[in-house]
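job 3f2a | input accepted
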Amino acid sequence: MITRFRAALLLVSIFTVQWASANEPNRPVVPGVFRLHARLRVEQPSGSGEFQLVERTLDWQVSETAIIVCDMWDDHYCRMAAQRVGAMVPRMNQVLTAARSHGAVVIHAPSGTMDFYKDTPFRRRILEAPAVKPPVPIASWCHLDPKHEAPLPIDTSRSACDDPTPREAKRYYTRQHPGIDIAGYDAISDSGVEIYNFCRHLGIKNIAIMGVHTNMCVLGRPFGIRQQVRLGMNVVLVRDLTDTMYDPREPPYVSHARGTELVIEHIEKYWCPSIHSRDLTCVLEGSADPQNKLATAATD
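job 3f2a | predicted structure (300 res):
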């Protein structure tokens, strides 16, 4: 009798878990304002080719903000690139945990690994967003636009990997780095169309992008900076949680760290501001209180 009861209880439990997964409640929309200390570079005077560093304050509603984690894979053909990703992971996970707790949306975009996540609620969630027509076409890759930006300041035409002896440039990754939690109302996609549909469905206007590699996927992916700017999103790069593919043995013959800084400066000149990750870990005091005017008065 006890055995039958336990078996019946187990069946009920399994059914309940499956039902909850397929019919989960909507993401709670809560008050709160991220105050971003944005850095950009403005050409002054216009047409001079001289850029001046400018700092601006941006107030973003957390409920209208998504963080896209770009291509933080579990391995890479370039061992040095993989090592830097591993070093970045603990801080990135701390930032995502804090931002998530304040109500921001986290979208994980480990390109080429969607089969690994196909049976998860995080993948199904984004697939269920209704399709909407974007204001401009969403490209499969957004190449450098010479009408809009100068050439990138680092050269990767011969070598992008700074290993002493690089491995064969092939796929070594299978998933996102396991040190980055995927939790709660997070979503997973490597599709620009899916991510745009999802953001529109949730009323997302603001996109913070972190991950790798700054001069390649972060700029060029169909969910990357160039595409998000063209779609009319408010976009920032999280400059302390990104890294380039660059070999100091190639022009302009600077350190890898300086090469990454140069690409960040390029983005600040031609595409969008950058912020420090700490801006995504806390909200303005009082803004999480629905009675406070800051909760509804943030500006883009």
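job 3f2a | The chain has seven helices and eight strands.
job 3f2a | closed
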